[in-house]
Amino acid sequence: xxxxxxxxxxxxxxxxxxxxxxxxxxxxxxxxxxxxxxxxxxxxxxxxxxxxxxxxxxxxxxxxxxxxxxxxxxxxxxxxxxxxxxxxxxxxxxxxxxxxxxxxxxxxxxxxxxxxxxxxxxxxxxxxxxxxxxxxxxxxxxxxxxxxxxxxxxxxxxxxxxxxxxxxxxxxxxxxxxxxxxxxxxxxxxxxxxxxxxxxxxxxxxxxxxxxxxxxxxxxxxxxxxxxxxxxxxxxxxxxxxxxxxxxxxxxxxxxxxxxxxxxxxxxxxxxxxxxxxxxxxxxxxxxxxxxxxxxxxxxxxxxxxxxxxxxxxxxxxxxxxxxxxxxxxxxxxxxxxxxxxxxxxxxxxxxxxxxxxxxxxxxxxxxxxxxxxxxxxxxxxxxxxxxxxxxxxxxxxxxxxxxxxxxxxxxxxxxxxxxxxxxxxxxxxxxxxxxxxxxx
Amino acid sequence: xxxxxxxxxxxxxxxxxxxxxxxxxxxxxxxxxxxxxxxxxxxxxxxxxxxxxxxxxxxxxxxxxxxxxxxxxxxxxxxxxxxxxxxxxxxxxxxxxxxxxxxxxxxxxxxxxxxxxxxxxxxxxxxxxxxxxxxxxxxxxxxxxxxxxxxxxxxxxxxxxxxxxxxxxxxxxxxxxxxxxxxxxxxxxxxxxxxxxxxxxxxxxxxxxxxxxxxxxxxxxxxxxxxxxxxxxxxxxxxxxxxxxxxxxxxxxxxxxxxxxxxxxxxxxxxxxxxxxxxxxxxxxxxxxxxxxxxxxxxxxxxxxxxxxxxxxxxxxxxxxxxxxx
Lengths: 441, 326
Fold this sequence. Notes:
The complex is a heterodimer. Chain A is of the alpha/beta class. Chain A has helices at 2-17, 20-45, 64-71, 74-86, 116-125, 162-183, 188-195, 217-249, 253-257, 262-294, 303-330, 334-360, 365-370, 377-385, 393-421, 431-440, and strands spanning 52-58, 106-111, 129-135, 152-156, 203-206, 209-212. In chain A, a hairpin with a 2-residue loop joins strand 5 (203-206) and strand 6. A six-stranded mixed sheet of chain B has the order 5-6-7-3-8-9, sandwiched between helices. In chain B, strands 11-12-10-13 form a four-stranded antiparallel sheet, with helices on one face. Chain B is built from ten helices and 13 strands.
């Protein structure tokens, strides 16, 4: 019996993984994304040409231009960038990643008069004329009774890239703030120091020890784990459905049943596609781990989470895979399968969507309850495990036990439909008919 | 020795339709049995129960000394009526897969499959995908899949349907070889001529009931022919006048003459002389008993009208014609 099951599984596995559709759609997809994830930082970090040009400024007070010249000095821009990089953000980008910045531009600040029309014409005169800054008269000195200072207008050449424009804006902001503080008699260094509060990385103190709470990307892990589970189950289940419908419609099924029993055929197919799903998930996991490594966030991924992913994939796959096998055996062509697939797809999409919510409140009564209700339980528990406040071990074990029981029950029920449905022809059955078949078998 | 197949009191019902009704059957080892009956008689259901693809509502099955075919599948070759292949698989790989599923070694199965494909004129198809083959070629491939493991019990459900005469002849030769090798063969067909040619014992099923289980030689003795075939010397001769002869029950015109049905108890020799004296014959002979005639007699019984018998006979001939033409 085992020999026949393994032979069916082996055929199911090999015919699926050598199919062009599988290689292109499932394996090359992650590989392609993997290459992109690795390439993008390198592309962005590669040297683009340095921007060299002039920035014309209309400064009615005559006090801002010196500050702007200082702020747009290449050394000052480099220092500002370094200071920002050292500020602890929500997630520290690693050395290879982080938002890529353009090379430091070499900008010359020129003074211009109030004639906007002439200023615009100046922008079009030469490709090195990059921007025109028109400071408003109240930009430095606040008018009597006004709550805010005035601002400035910026006209730019179409050749000016977004990064350099941002650098110019930041320079103008710094120069304006410095001038305003000075004119108000305030010490700029003191004000800046007073405004700065370094944000710490929070540390979770648990009985097992302390660990850094990586919020941010960590928040997406439950959702990502849900996606992985969903993709694994969908790929395996969908292939089970189509291959069973094909075997039935091509009438090869009775030839097969002369050599194997329906139960052997069903288990062989389930195991074969389980292997296919595992390969596909391994591809996406490699993608995820590589992406995390790119951003020096490998520490976010607890190896036990991968073990749990495999365990819950196994349970979810058995439940949904068995149901799809039963549907495949019950119908004669794919078009007939749609009506029966609807409820199964809802049962699959709902828990996947819920993983995002569960990730935000992993220990709420709702999340805990869902961890024990099949078929949502695998998704719910995996999402909870992926958060930085995972559930207690007894709940994990209880979810696995409930999951295995529900998988056994579903496979048992599906096998009954599978046995009868395989040889049934004619109009597609309703759910009531499927239940009747299960009683008959 | 245990029989190759034993069915005891098999009953099977699909909804309101009784597919099999208390079916008993014993097939000794090495025998060739023909399971015949019109479409819908219950033949395929009986075979599927033998193969444990379907399960009886009641009754017991014994196959090659085991209580279920599930325990003897490796020793059974089965060509189902609803047969197909993996269309994307190559012929050699398909046969190898089916052979290995039944416990054959890769090398053995490949050697035998190659030899059998050669016998059937398909040697060059080993590396072709199944979808590249014609329907007739695929049927021959499926036949090879059924016998590639040299089974002890070979069950063939309508093996010749849809085949050209040359393919039918080739497959018949292989069936004869399998019989000579010692395999027990159960051959289901609604084309009774095929059963007459290949089988030593005939089992007739009608509406789920077994109506006959006899050696073919005994059938010929038991069901003496009561039909005279006449081809008149003069094509314009009045053949319907033969109905006036004593002992003649019916006259049915055929393309080259007529069939004259005799009433029960009529002595055939005297009847032939009477017919020849009334219409000069180019050819006159006593028709050999045909299975369909036996079948008609059995299911119509003595109570059946001549019209109902004729209707059933026409139906069976139509089925035979389909099979022969296909």
